[in-house]
Design a protein that fits this description.
The chain is α+β, with helices and mostly antiparallel strands. It is built from 4 helices and 5 strands; from the N terminus they run H-E-E-H-E-H-E-E-H. Helix content is 30%, strand content 23%. Strands 2-1-3-4-5 form a 5-stranded mixed sheet. The protein binds tetrahydrodeoxyuridine. Tetrahydrodeoxyuridine binds next to helix 2.
Amino acid sequence: MDKNQALTLLEHAKQVASNAYAPYSKFKVGASILFKDNSTVQGCNVENASYGLTLCAERNALSTAISFGKNKEDILAIAIYSPNTNKCFPCGACRQWIAEFSQDIQVIVENNGDNALIYTINDLLPYFFYLDK
Ligand code: THU
């Protein structure tokens, strides 16, 4: 993942953030997932009058990816963007969701407009929960 690829993925996340349904918090978030075949899937946050039912952008994007038949092994990265804040890191629940699919997924957040910060989900959520089978 080079800087230009990361910035392009952040641009997708920025575009989808404009579709966010966030009448309560007014805090819009977009997420864009990059796959090995270079395809992408996006999601935005969708709030609800019963606040706790709100769906975050990252989980919306991941659900959409799975619904479209994407394989978890093919996820390379997820970029997260909010027009409301610099460095929009995924919440704890979304970190657990990302970690479900691979510990190597790269998590990209925007820093000051022209810079992308790149982590792995393992950096952000070491010792994630999993079921031993
Ligand atoms: N939100 C996300 O979409 N992703 C996160 O990782 C954290 C928070 C949304 C949920 C809610 O609609 C708004 O941001 C404010 O919390």
